[in-house]
Amino acid sequence: MAAIESLEDIIDTLEEQLTCSLCHDVLTQPKTLSCLHSYCARCIAPDLYQSGNRMDCPFCNTTVVVPDGDPSKLPSSFYLDSLLDLLHAMKSIANEPVLPHCVSCEQPRVLVAFCQQCNGLICEACCNAHRLFREIRDEHQPIMLDPFREGDVNSFIKTQMLCKCHERKKLEYYCQEETCRLSVCQKCATLNHLNHQLKSLEDAGQDSRNLIEGAVNRVEQRKQNDGQELKQSKENIERIQREIDVAKKDVQNVVKMICKMAKEHGIAKEEELNQTLQE
Predict the structure, then answer these.
(1) What is the pLDDT of residues 244-272, one digit of tens each?
(2) Less CB within 10 Å around the terminal CB: N or C of the chain?
C-alpha cells in the first residue's frame, strides 16, 4: 500500500510540474519559447501575437518570435517529452488492477473457482489442472464461483472437521478435561485421552447449544424483569408526583382559608374598635 501511495505522490508531483499555465492541464505537444518557458502547441494561439509572428511570453512578457507564425515549428523539449512519457507510464501502472493470488500456483490471477482441499480460491489454469490430472482430480473437486451456494459452504465446513494430528481422521469426540478442552479423533482418544472424560461431538455441541440458549434465556428474563422493575419505578414516581401535587393543593387551600379567616377576624376586630370609640 505504501508503494502505491508513493507512486501516486510522484504522479501528482509530475503533473504539477507538467501543467500548462495557459490551459491549466497537462502539457500536450509542449513547445518551448526562446525564453525557455513551455506551453501546449494549441495554447500558443494567434490572439497572443502582437504583430506578425511576434508574441510576448505569458509568463515573463519577453517578446519572442514564432517561426512563420506556426507554433508547431517552435522547438520541442526532449526533457518535457521524456517526463510526459514517464507520467503516462506511471499512470498506466497505477491504474492496473491488483489481482489476488491463486492459492494453488501462488500467482496473481483472476480467480474462478473454490477448492476445498486447497483451502482457497484458484485460477482458471489451476482449475483446469485439477480436472485433467488424475492424481489431483481424484481428491480435489473445485467448485466454480458462479454456482457456489450455501451447501458448498457447509460441505467445506465439514471437511475442516479433520484431526490436525492424524491426517484424514475425522473429529468424533470432545475431551472435557480441564487441561484439554478440545476435539479429537478416535485415534487421539485411544492414544492420548484414554482415561479422560469424552463426549461425542454431537452431544458436546448440544451441551454448548443448551448453555448458550440458557444464557440467552437468562438474559431475556433479566431484561424482562428489569423492564418490569423500570415500569414499576416509573409508576411509583408518577404516583408520588400525583400525591405531591395533591399535597401542594391542600397546602394552598389551607393557606387561603387561614388568610380568609385572618382577614375576617381583622374586620371583626376593627368593627368592635370602631363601636367602642363611638361609645
Answers:
(1) 888 888 888 888 888 888 888 888 888 88
(2) C
What's the number of CA atoms in the CB half-sphere (13 Å) around residue 242? 6
Element of type H or E holding 65: strand 63-65
Nearest C-alpha neighbor of 165 from the set 146, 182, 177: 182
Please name the residues in contact with 251: beta carbons below 8 A apart, sequence gap of 6 or more. none
Q: Which three cell numbers stand for residue 127?
A: 482449475
Question: By three-state DSSP, how is residue 91 classified?
Answer: helix
The three-state DSSP-derived secondary structure of 124-191 is HHHHHHHHHCHHHHCCCCCEECCCCCHHHHHHHHHHCCECCCCCCCEEEEEECCCCCCEEEEHHHHHH
Question: Does residue 82 share a domain with residue 168?
Answer: no
Q: What is the pTM of this model?
A: 0.36
Virtual CA dihedral for 147, 149, 152, 157, nearest 10 degrees?
Answer: 150
For the cut 60, the answer to whether the pLDDT of residue 156 exceeds it is: no
Q: Identify whether 232 is part of a domain.
A: no
Round to whole Å and give the CA distance between 41 and 22: 11
Q: Read off the pLDDT of each residue in 96-113 and give the average, rounded to a whole number.
A: 77
Per residue in 177-224, pLDDT (tens digit) is 888 888 888 888 888 888 898 888 788 878 877 777 777 788 788 888
Number of domains in the chain: 2
How far apart CA 100 and CA 103 sit, in angstroms, is 9
What cell does 279 get? 361609645
Please indicate, yes or no, whether residues 122 and 192 belong to a single structural domain of this protein: no
Same domain, 156 and 169: no
